[in-house]
Amino acid sequence: MHKLLVLYPKPVDPDHFRDYYVNNHLPLVRKWPGVLAWRYSFEVAAAKGEPAYFAVFEADFADAAALAAMRASEFGQQAAADVVNYATGGVVVIDYAVRDDSD
């Protein structure tokens, strides 16, 4: 499995972020090809002090090739271009292979 993780620092207008994200951005995500599951939260907490991030998003893909295909797709490109419309605090995007040691 391969995971996409998106971390959002606090935006200038948190209410606009929440509204735009749910009503405009996530509908693009729903159209991503190859995504196995996705989830997000605005309830980000820190073990100590203020959290470094306002929101988090994660998506699961079968492998790195499936993630690359999504990014190259029409809806992947649209979602990437849409980030500037709500993430005024910036964005951190990482992806990684998930290792499962439960066997």
From TrEMBL:
Domain EthD stretches: 11-88
SUPFAM superfamilies the record matches: Dimeric alpha+beta barrel (SSF54909)
GO molecular function: oxidoreductase activity
One Pfam family hit: EthD
Name of the protein: EthD family reductase
